[in-house]
Design brief:
- The protein is α+β, with helices and mostly antiparallel strands.
- The protein has three domains: 2-53, no CATH class; 92-268, Cathepsin B, Chain A; 276-458, Cysteine proteinases (Cathepsin B, Chain A, Alpha-Beta Complex).
- It has 19 helices and 14 strands.
- The chain has helices at residues 2-12, 27-36, 41-52, 55-59, 62-66, 90-107, 116-137, 146-153, 162-172, 184-187, 190-208, 213-235, 261-268, 312-324, 353-357, 365-370, 415-421, 434-440, 452-458; strands at residues 74-75, 242-244, 257-259, 276-280, 289-293, 306-309, 329-333, 339-340, 345-346, 378-388, 391-398, 410-414, 422-428, 445-447.
- Strands 1, 4, 5, 6, 7, 8, 9, 10, 11, 12, 13 and 14 form a twelve-stranded mixed β-sheet that branches. Strands 2-3 form a two-stranded antiparallel ribbon.
- Strand 10 (378-388) and strand 11 form a beta hairpin.
- Helix 7 (116-137) packs parallel to helix 11 (190-208).
- The chain starts with a helix and ends with a helix.
Length: 461
């Protein structure tokens, strides 16, 4: 594979330089560019290969991929892999998956999965409520106002973040998956997003032209009732109370119990989620500062998304320490970069674009952020780390794309990939230093909702 890429490098490398003084593309410049790609036999071979084959396939370095083994010095118990399907619920799936080991231990069972559809229902309802409140607050602004435009372009999306996840659980609890299973609509969210978007925009127009506050209040209530109905049709009605029993590890059947979703969480999971803090490492933002993102929240009367920005080595050290204490780690990354999903590998330099095109495509972590080429767009969980003399060499990742992706749903992340593309980890505050804890007590600086960090959270994979 590498020899094939090197062969093409000589073909596609620029034969000569040209300069252009005018802004337009002159005939002379166009001829020079065409001559640079002269139609010889070698160029035809490269062009024909790219015409019929994904360039990503051609450039994969199979020798490097094949050298990456699946052995880990520290590995948590594998859980059944989940599948978010055609929805942007990675943050929700990975969040619920971090809770499974605690519930499994408390219940004395081999496996449990929480209902993602149940949380999705309330996530959409809360986002619709936030959208309506923002439209009411900004109703006197023109539709061309940047904030108003942002709202109308993004009424209700799938993405989310750790703080939103814990606020939803604190308010609504959790239920086992069999109590509110997946539907086509929850697994394939495009339709429901389209319908909700149209309906909410209709109400936005009505609110903006309403005669008085009383009329606006009626419109808001009507809109939320419509949203609830749309969600109930697509996802089903969320349970207020349910009866449930399950199979224990010894194959006996537990006695049935009746719970509200919040009672179920408190009894069988019981983790104080307020003890878990989100740490980011964004090279274009100041370190050791608390930041929040305007309008980015899951529940109206709770704080907007906030985090402390720390150096990258802090993320790595805290993630490793948590794993060594046998707890999974929720994290965010740019999964679209240098990833071979079919081989279950995340590693730098597994795609040799430089040799194929005869150009240097390398960029630093900071470079990628400065030109909007990298943002945290996917959430997964670390369930293992491979240490060599106490230094991490690779990380085991549980994904939520089903067991047909990667190695039965798991990915191997090389440590150099962590260094370039991991941007978020969530850890218990007991692992945080005094200076990081003090930073969380700061008054947060506010980022606008069109900041790339907001965009990444709302458009997660």
């Amino acid at each position: 594979m590498r020899r094939f890429a090197i062969f093409f490098a000589a073909v596609l490398a620029p034969a000569f330089a040209f300069s252009q003084q005018d802004k337009g593309l002159s005939p002379e410049v166009l001829k020079q560019m065409r001559d640079m790609c002269s139609d010889n036999a070698e160029f035809r071979a490269a062009r024909n290969a790219l015409a019929q084959t994904d360039g990503g396939k051609i450039t994969q370095d199979m020798q490097r991929i094949g050298s990456i083994n699946q052995l880990f010095s520290n590995r948590l118990k594998d859980e059944r892999v989940t599948d978010q399907k055609a929805s942007g619920r990675c943050w929700m799936f990975s969040g619920l998956n971090t809770l499974r080991p605690f519930a499994r231990h408390t219940l004395g069972t081999d496996e449990i999965e929480f209902s993602q559809s149940y949380m999705f229902f309330y996530d959409k309802l809360e986002k619709a409520n936030l959208f309506l409140d923002a439209v009411i607050d900004l109703r006197d602004k023109p539709v061309t106002d940047r904030m108003m435009e942002f709202l109308l372009r993004n009424p209700v999306q799938d993405g989310g973040n750790w703080l939103g996840f814990i606020e939803l659980i604190k308010k609504y609890g959790v239920v086992p998956k069999e109590i509110m299973p997946e539907t086509f609509g929850s697994s394939n969210s495009r339709h429901v997003n389209l319908v909700l978007g149209v309906r909410l925009r209709q109400y936005a127009l009505k609110i903006r032209s309403a005669a008085n506050d009383a009329a606006i209040a009626v419109l808001r209530d009507d809109a939320l009732r419509d949203v609830y109905k749309i969600l109930a049709l697509n996802f089903g009605l969320p349970p207020e109370k349910f009866s449930w029993r399950y199979e224990k590890s010894d194959k006996s059947i537990a006695d049935a119990g009746t719970y509200t979703p919040r009672e179920f969480y408190e009894k069988f999971v019981g983790k104080n989620l307020d003890d878990y803090y989100a740490l980011y490492s964004i090279p274009t933002l100041p370190f050791m500062k608390k930041l929040e993102i305007e309008l980015d929240k899951a529940v109206a009367d709770r704080p907007a998304m906030y985090f402390v920005n720390v150096p990258l080595d802090t993320l790595k050290r805290l993630a490793m320490r948590t794993l060594l204490d046998n707890e999974p780690v929720w994290f965010g990354c740019d999964v679209g970069q240098e990833a071979s999903a079919e081989n279950g590998v995340l590693a730098t330099n597994i795609f040799d674009l430089n040799s194929l095109y005869g150009m240097d495509f390398s960029m630093s972590r900071k470079d990628l952020f400065e030109v909007y080429s990298s943002i945290p767009n996917h959430n997964m969980i670390f369930t293992g780390v491979d240490l060599d003399a106490g230094i991490p060499r690779k990380w085991l990742v549980e994904n939520s794309w089903g067991d047909k992706s990667g190695k039965k749903g798991y990915l191997v992340m090389m440590d150099d990939w962590f260094d370039k593309y991991v941007e978020v980890v969530v850890v218990n505050k007991k692992y945080l230093s005094k200076d990081i804890l003090a930073a969380f007590q700061q008054k947060a600086a506010t980022l606008p909702p069109w900041d790339p960090m907001f965009k990444s959270l709302w458009e997660a994979e």
